[in-house]
Amino acid sequence: RRQAGPWGERERAVPAATARGGGGGLGRPSDGAIDVELAIPAGMGGPGGAGTNPEQLFASGYAACFGSAVAFAARQKQLAPESITIDASVSIGSIASGQFALAVELKATLPGLSRDDALGVRDGARCILSHGGGRPGDEHEGAGCNGRNVRATHM
Q: What is the Cα–Cα distance from 65 to 51, expressed in whole angstroms?
């Protein structure tokens, strides 16, 4: 499936997945490569169980996408970190409007780069992996590099 997006007329492939049964059901990507049993943890008001927390899957996917953007930004800047590790934490809560929202905090570890180079790569990655749709005041991402945490909000 292809879809035009906020980047204009240029088309991009759109990965797709289906979840049945909500957070306590089954998740499957459109290519059928895996089936994931989902379970809402007891700490989040669910029954718990053997399945995977959907927010953990979201965090894994987001970390992987951001890691790809970090690698691309490093290449653009002709920098070569020894490795790229992205830790993502996802929280869910209600915002001022009463709706629920996800917040993602990212921490990038880029050994072999100075703090300034790592922050430059991080900033480049944030531009590459820009995500729209935020409303003013919505917190969308905290990204840190090599020990420095930064929180960003839509303005």
A: 23
Helix/strand/coil for 112: coil
Q: Which residues contact 80 (CB under 8 A, 6 or more apart)?
A: 74, 112
Residues in the chain: 155
Query: Does the model's pTM come out above 0.85?
Result: no
The CA distance from 70 to 68, in Å, is 5
Between helices 54-76 and 115-128, what is the axis angle to 10°?
A: 110
Say yes or no to pLDDT of 129 above 70: yes
pLDDT digits (tens, 9 = 90+) for 85-126: 999 998 888 888 888 888 888 999 999 999 999 999 998 998
Vertex 44 angle, CA 38 and 46, to 5° = 55
* Strands 100-109, 139-145: pairing kind: parallel
